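Action item from last meeting closed. Structure (229 res):
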């Protein structure tokens, strides 16, 4: 399976700036392997930015990120991205048909394997024949997830994977996360859905204005507590 290796991210005093704007400020934290970590916090707090640091879609402007003790810049980027797959909030489809898209990183993928990956993400198997043009946002995001799963990543980085989905489709995605964890894999999930974070996460990071405001198991996180009226 290739998913049983220990994969731990350590962020050491990580900062991200764009010009004068401080996007992430002095974040030091470890993300444990074989767990699901949710990143929560208000819009604009820096959640997607933090996620993008973990497979070098973005470089920190200060501090460093280590994977199993190795600083990320010392790792080969394509190899890192096979181990650490990112499904972005805005999906990017790369080819004309869904089947071809699923084969981008796995040219050997059979049609049966493609159909079963689609089913995992809650899409009908016949979706393999669909042109990528005209897919809805939620469908395109799930095709991106299936394309990432085709690489059997050890770590799955998911940026609001269910925000565009109905309940049944969202459940399918949550099951993908649970299955990955059950197989020893690691998931890092950005979610605005506090109930989802409580359901799925072993650990939660809360960002506020680029700073780490809370970190711990979901039951200890004030940000996740339902507001009682
Ligand atoms: N290239 C950039 N230049 C300037 N500011 C940027 C850049 N990229 C991101 N930002 C800003 O950094 C902040 C954090 O962005 P990020 O996407 O990480 O937030 P987020 O917590 O994921 O937000 P949301 O919940 O709305 O998706 C935002 O204010 C955003 O406008």
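Sequence:
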């Amino acid at each position: 399976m290739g998913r049983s290796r220990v994969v731990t991210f350590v962020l050491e005093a990580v900062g991200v700036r764009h010009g004068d704007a401080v996007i992430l400020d002095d974040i030091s934290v470890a993300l444990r392997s074989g767990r699901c970590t949710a990143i929560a916090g208000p819009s604009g707090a820096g959640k997607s930015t933090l996620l993008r640091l973990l497979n070098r879609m973005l470089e920190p402007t200060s501090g460093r990120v280590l994977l199993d003790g190795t600083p990320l810049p010392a790792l080969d980027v394509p190899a890192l991205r096979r181990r650490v797959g990112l499904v972005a909030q805005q999906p990017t489809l790369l080819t004309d048909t869904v089947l071809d898209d699923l084969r981008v990183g796995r040219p050997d993928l059979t049609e049966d394997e493609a159909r079963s990956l689609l089913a995992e993400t809650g899409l009908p198997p016949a979706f393999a024949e669909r042109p990528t043009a005209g897919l809805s946002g939620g469908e395109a995001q799930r095709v991106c997830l299936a394309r990432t799963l085709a690489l059997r990543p050890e770590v799955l980085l998911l940026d609001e994977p269910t925000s565009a989905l109905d309940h049944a489709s969202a459940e399918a995605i949550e099951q993908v996360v649970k299955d990955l964890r059950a197989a020893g894999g690691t998931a890092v999930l950005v979610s605005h859905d506090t109930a989802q974070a409580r359901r799925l996460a072993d650990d939660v990071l809360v960002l506020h204005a680029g700073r780490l405001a809370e970190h711990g198991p979901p039951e200890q996180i004030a940000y996740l507590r339902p507001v009682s009226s």
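Note appended to the action item: The chain has one domain: 9-215.
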